[in-house]
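Below is a filled-in request sheet from our internal design queue. Each sheet records the structural input a requester submitted and the sequence that came back. We keep these sheets so that new team members can see what a complete request looks like end to end.

REQUESTER: design group, bay 2
PRIORITY: normal
MODE: inverse folding
CHAIN LENGTH: 252
BACKBONE (tokenized):
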């Protein structure tokens, strides 16, 4: 093989690798109101836990743009703090466009340009609705405690209100639970079902692994992922998680 042939082969290999990287790339861009000059962080929600990707600077107009070549399809978390974030699920070649408020990303953001990131936005919106109900119940409980302390109501009044707020809490929990179950059923095969599966409400998992019936939902998520993306690291890791849960429930 001549030097010229070797050089041409090396160039072809480089071009092929570059093209492959381009096909695997996604871009995330948008505007963060109130975020001018600040920095956000992008991390992969990898099967084994968060994996830092890079920091992203927001310019003086509140705009940002960042591209990344995915080794495989995965979930990506764009955040300012641990509690202020956006979860996205980009596909190859997508430009995920987001907009939100710097100090309140989870409650304020919108997303377009990515079908499955939009699914996660819908899931988050329903979670936000449940959080508002929960905060209202907490405010009511605190108000009645203060009224009792001030002598303006009796303990019986507090107990009656507690029965009412407990009933509203159970209803809100059930609505959130029903929603994530429907989400899993309707979006079988999507990595977004992993986010739904682990959704909490008031620090309590909506699909509680202490409940023997939870294995049915784990099996449903796993079946969809194995059909749609059998070799994805998330699928392989989740298969082990499901098997471990099955063993744990069998020992109960």
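RETURNED SEQUENCE:
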């Amino acid at each position: 093989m001549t030097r010229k042939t070797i050089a041409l082969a090396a160039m072809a290999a480089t071009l092929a690798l570059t093209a492959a990287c381009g096909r695997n790339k996604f871009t995330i861009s948008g505007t963060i109101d109130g975020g001018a000059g600040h920095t956000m962080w992008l991390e992969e929600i990898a099967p084994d836990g968060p994996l830092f990707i890079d920091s992203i600077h927001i310019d003086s107009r509140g705009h940002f743009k960042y591209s990344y070549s995915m080794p495989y399809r995965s979930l990506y978390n764009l955040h300012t703090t641990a509690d202020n974030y956006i979860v996205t699920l980009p596909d190859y070649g997508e430009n995920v466009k987001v907009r939100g408020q710097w100090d309140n990303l989870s409650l304020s953001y919108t997303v377009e340009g990515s079908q499955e990131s939009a699914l996660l936005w819908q899931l988050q919106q329903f979670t936000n609705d449940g959080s508002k109900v929960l905060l209202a119940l907490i405010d009511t409980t605190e108000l009645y405690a203060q009224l009792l302390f001030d002598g303006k109501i009796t303990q019986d009044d507090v107990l009656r209100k507690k029965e009412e707020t407990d009933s509203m809490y159970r209803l809100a929990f059930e609505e959130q639970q029903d929603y994530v179950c429907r989400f899993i059923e309707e979006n079988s095969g999507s990595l977004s079902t992993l986010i739904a599966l682990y959704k909490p409400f008031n620090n309590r998992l909506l699909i509680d692994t202490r409940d023997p019936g939870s294995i049915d939902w784990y099996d449903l998520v796993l079946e969809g992922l194995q059909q749609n993306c059998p070799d994805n690291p998330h699928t392989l890791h989740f298969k082990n998680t499901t098997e471990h849960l099955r063993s744990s429930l069998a020992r109960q």
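SHEET NOTES:
- The first strand starts at residue 25 and ends at 33.
- Confidence is low (pLDDT under 50) at residues 3-22.
FILED BY: M.R.
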